[in-house]
Structures are given as C-alpha cells and as structure tokens.
Amino acid sequence: MSKTSSSNTNAGQPGVHGHGGGKVGLAGLVVGAIGVVFGDIGTSPLYTIKEAFSGHYGLIADHDTVLGVLSLVFWSLMMVVTLKYVTIIMRADNEGEGGIMALMALAQRSLPKGSKSAYLVGILGIFGASLFFADGVITPAISVLSAVEGLEVVAPQLHNWIVPITVLVLVSLFATQRYGTAKVGRVFGPITVIWFITLAVLGVVNILHEPEVLQAINPIWAAYFFFDYSWHGVFILGAVVLAVTGGEAIYTDMGHFGARPIRLGWYWFVLPSLMLNYLGQGALVLENPLAVKNPFYIGVPEWGRYPMIVLATAATVIASQAVITGGFSVARQAMQLGYIPRMHVKHTSSSTEGQIYIPGINWMMMVIVIGLVLSFRSSSALATAYGISVSATMLIDTLLLAIVARALWPRARRWVLPLCVLFLVGDIAFVIANGAKILQGGWFPVVLGIALFTLLRTWRRGRELLSAEIRKEGIQLDTFLPGLMLAPPVRVQGTAVFLTAQTGVVPHAMLHNLKHNKVLHERNVFLTVETLTVPYSHKRLRIDEIGEGFYRVVLRFGFMETPDVPLGLMRSCDNGGIYFDPMDTTYFASRETVVASARRGMPIWRDKLFALMHRNAASATGFFRIPGNRLVELGSQVEI
Predict the structure, then answer these.
(1) Per-residue pLDDT, 217
(2) What is the pLDDT of residue 22?
(3) How far, in Å, CA of 497 to CA of 526, rounded?
(4) How far is CA 471 from CA 127, 172, 263, 468, in A?
(5) Which among 51, 199, 384, 410 has the fewest CB atoms less than 10 Å away?
(6) Which residue, among 97, 68, 67, 520, has the nearest Cα to 283 in the 3D structure?
(7) Angle 26-36/182-207 helices, nearest 10 degrees?
C-alpha cells in the first residue's frame, strides 16, 4: 500500500544537523550520547589488546611489538573514528539522521532517478546495512562474554560458569526489551561516564609504571611494526579493527542527540579515556609479558576486580542495549523504504517517537546471539568472527561518502575526496586482514550478511513485480469513473477510503465492493501512502478533487516516522481539506495472495521466497494504524 518517492529538499548539506539542543541542554545531551552512542566502542578495551597477542597472530610481546600494536590502535582510532566518522561523515546528515540507510538515501538523491548508478548505490547501501546487522548480533555476544570472563582472573574454578552466566544476562536483556528503554536510559549515561573514568584512571595508574609506552603515539612505531613483520604484519589489522568497531554506530545514532554533543563527548572524554586505557594495558604488558592473557583485568588491583566485573558487565549490557535499539531503528527504516516486510512495531514511549520495540527483530537477534555464545564459548573465539562485516561496512561508507561529497559539497569535496582515497586504502587493508579469518569464524557474519541481503533484495524486487502485475491487470481510473457514473449504483452515506499503491488504477477493493455489495459511498477517497527518502515529511498531505464525490489523497511520511493514516487524514481538515469523521469512515483494502510462477519475474526459488515473506508480513492496515472495526479487507490472487 505504500511506495517510495524522493523529495526535493536541501537535506544533507554539510552543517545541517538535527536534535542538538532543546530543553535537555548541551551537557545533558553529551552525557546521554556517552551512555548510548559510545557503548559499543567503549567496551572494546576488554578484548582488543588480548586478541592482538593471542596465538592466532603469533606476536611476541616484546618492546617494539607492543609499541607497534598500540600505535596502530591509536592511529586507527584517529583516522577511522575521529577523522572519518566523527569529523567528516557526520556532516552527511539526512535531515539530522545518520546511518548507512540515511547515507544511501542521500547518495541516491544526488544521482539521476532510475539511473544505473542510483541502482548500484542502492545495492551497496543494502549490502552494507545487511553486514551492519550481522556485525550487530556479534557485539552483545562478545561484549558480555568478555566482561564475564573476568571471573577467570579472580576465580579460575568458575570457568565453567562463564557461558551460563553470559546466556542468563543476555536472555534477561532481550526479555526486558518489551518494556522500553526510557526508564533504564536515565541511568545509562552516568554508568557509562563512570566506566570511561575508570578506564582512564586504570590507564594512568599502569602508564606510571612504564611511561615509555607513551612513545606509541608516534606513528613511526606503526611503520617499524610493518617493517619488522613485512607483509604478514597486515593481518594484525584483524585485531586492531576491534578497537574501531562502533564507529558506524556513532554515525547511526546521530539523530538521537545531534552531531555537536557526540563530537564533544568523543573529542574531550571518550577518545582520551580509551587511549589512556589502551596505553595502560600496553605498559602492563611491557612490565609483565605474561599479562597478555587478559591485560584488562590483570591491570585492575585485586581488591577491585569483582566490582570491575560488575561494572564491565553493566557497560556491556548498555552497549548491547544500544545495538539492539539500533537494530530496531534500522529495521523500521528498511520497512519504510520497502526493503523488508512490514512487522509489528510497538511504541514504548508516548513522548519519544524513536523508542520502539519490534518483537520479530528482538527474538531473532536473541536466538542468533545466544547461538553465537554457545557455539564459540569465548571472546577470543568470537573475535575471529568479528571484524569482516565491520570493515566491509566501513568500505561501503567511504564509497557512499565520496558520492555525497562530490555531488553535494562543492567546497568541501576538494579536501574530502582526497581523504576518501586514503580511507579507501585503509578500509581495503582492514578487509584483507579480516578476510584471513574467514575459515576460523569470519564466515558467519559474511553468510548472515549475504542471507539478509538476499531477503532484502528479494522483498524489494518482489514488491516491484507485484505492483507491475496489479498495474497491468488493473483498470485505469480516468476511464472507469465516467463510465461508472453513467449508471451509478446506490449511494450510501459516509466516506470510503480505498488504499492503493497505484494512483491511476482502480483499487481491487473498490471493484470487489461494487461487485458484491453493489453500493457506492457518498464520498470515495483513493489513498496512497508514500514513504520518502528523507527522515521526516514536511508536506504531509495532498488532496485532489476528481468530482462526483471522488478524491485522490496522498499521505507522505519520512522513513524515520511511523505512518498513522487515520491521524494524518483527520488533520486534513486543519488545512481546509476534507473532514474525516472517524466514526463515519470505512477503510477498504485488498490483500493479495502471491502465486509463484516459473514463467516470469525472478527465479522460481526467489518467487517462492517472496510469496512466503508476503504471506507472513503484517497487514498494511495494521502497519498504518487503521482500526480493525473500521476496516473491510478483500482478497485477490496475483501471479508473479
């Protein structure tokens, strides 16, 4: 019942940011951003250095190697997160919203509509979104598992309890999603602030034992590392990438807090805290090479290890919460843009539009996350699966950024495009390094990403074929109505709203209503719901009077909005349009049954897959919030 269209706005110009102020104040937004936006990247110190010196890479924890790895971590954070995401990509806001879906929509609007380049950009964006989701399900598993693994340091006899405790924490986390994050969110910021302060203090304490570790800030140590290890040194980037996971999430969550609070939180608080902790772990390894077994927890004084396990678990739960919430947000964007079937969306806040709960996404993520924990059973094993999807998403972001900068930033592109070349080289290096882990576990996010991409593209293509069949078999409205009014059926009081995705075709529901009920309402509205490629619609309603009590109405919603058709129609009278009495309006919709055919459309297996997805999709009427007691649904069969 909906279709995607573009909007001629100036959204996406650099410097136009959303939600950066208001009653909360800048300080409150900064604290909120620290609690939500940086949860993923903020828990990376739990496992990054430990993984770099695991047996998988064969590194010896000597002086030059430790400084080389730390230098790579520092400059990766500076180049990938600080420069690329926080400083540059966050300029590419789609009316204040960020994330790969918003960036894709922005890039597509800069290209000729319907062109091959716009199609390829759509393919890139959807594949990147699929990989981002695949990476997202690993984050809760590896984060919570690495936090609970602190038990091994303080009480080795509790080793067998690590996986059960991790599963219990994760099940509790997913089970509470239905209640929303409004109340819990109030304590997210303060807890995460305490977490970052603790990271910084631990780092400083350990650095004081080996201040020589501060030399790692000099990039010459990264160069020495590659000189010593030759081309084999590239593969250590498979561990270094763990330090920058969460960079894409920073951009995705931009719409919740605005660019300025996120930048302030990163530049002046989060980045210094992270680097102090990484350097502190390096100092500990220089002092005691055996500490590479778990440098994060070994660097904590014995008296503080149990409290640190509790704090780390809380921090990882918060990071996981942010990933899950981000999954809900991306899923809603994909629904609105027509890439996944409609699903039941529950609003958990009466005042905040973005706080939603999607049961189908929640339980699917829980099953995958628990399956990962039970399969890999340690954060080191999970680290082999982590990284390939992150680095591939970062590569796609760079390509989309170059398209946006070239088309929309006439001044900034002179320095952004050369940097995109530099980013591209780094992204390719990360992809190659993580590609080496495919057989050890990296295959999982790749397979999951490809499966999700197949589902998304199949749904999108299937919808196009379904619309084409309806249009081909349909009757043109402009020729049908004059003929109908030559011998009109009985007119009854009230308003009939016929939902249709085809503005010029007679809705099937109307034909069935005339055939079986043989009546025509006093007022008849042909309603089309459009989803725009901008987050929020500024011109919600368009009404065209056809005559004889017939109207064409178009309701527009942005891809970040939840379409509420009755509310949108009721507001039409405020603009001098039709008055829709909720108790005198009946909605008519057709629900098609899709039949797969080998003679047309997609390959038969994709036709059958689309038919299965279509059969299990939530009804359009429920998605558009149409009350069931005012709805008449009529079925039809369509072959694709």
Answers:
(1) 94
(2) 45
(3) 6
(4) 29, 48, 49, 5
(5) 410
(6) 67
(7) 80
User: What span, in angstroms and rounded, lies between the C-alpha atoms of 355 and 35?
Assistant: 15
Q: What is the mean pLDDT of the chain?
A: 83
Paired tokens of 565: 């058709």
Q: In one letter, which amino acid is 512?
A: H
Neighbouring residues of 629: CB distance < 8 A, sequence distance ≥ 6: none
The tokens for 218 are 């000099």
Tokens of residue 442, six digits: 């990296």
Cβ within 8 Å of residue 8, ≥6 positions away: none
- Please list, in sequence order, all residues whose beta carbon lies within 8 angstroms of the beta carbon of residue 13, skipping any fewer than 6 positions away: 408, 409
Q: Which residue has the higher pLDDT, 564 or 451?
A: 451
Instruction: List C-alpha distances in Å: 129 to 254, 326, 479.
Output: 16, 11, 43
In this prediction, residue 208 carries a pLDDT of 94
Over residues 430-487, the pLDDT tens digits come to 999 988 888 888 888 889 989 999 999 999 888 888 877 777 777 888 888 888 888 8
Q: Which amino acid is at 534?
A: V
Q: Determine the Cα–Cα distance for residues 455 and 453; give it in Å rounded to an integer.
A: 5
Q: How many residues does the chain have?
A: 640
**Would you say residue 289 has pLDDT above 80?**
yes
Helix (H) or strand (E) holding 368: helix 359-376
146 and 47 in contact (C-beta within 8 Å)? yes
Handedness of CA 113, 116, 122, 128 (dihedral sign): negative
Q: What is the DSSP letter of 251?
A: H
Number of Cβ within 10 Å of residue 436's Cβ equals 17
C-beta separation of 510 from 599 below 8 A? no
**CA separation for the pair 162, 160 (Å, rounded):** 6
According to DSSP, residue 81 is labeled I
Model confidence over 377-405: pLDDT tens digits?
888 888 888 888 889 989 999 999 999 99
Amino acid letter for position 127: F
Supply the DSSP string of 119-177, one letter for each residue. HHHHHHHHHHHHHHHHHHHHHHHHHHHHHHTHHHHH-GGGGGGHHHHHHHHHHHHHHTG
Mean pLDDT of the region 268-296? 93
Other Cβ atoms within 10 Å of 520 Cβ, number: 21
Q: Which of 321, 348, 295, 373 is nearest to 191 (CA)?
A: 321
Alpha-carbon torsion angle 617, 622, 628, 630, nearest 10: -120
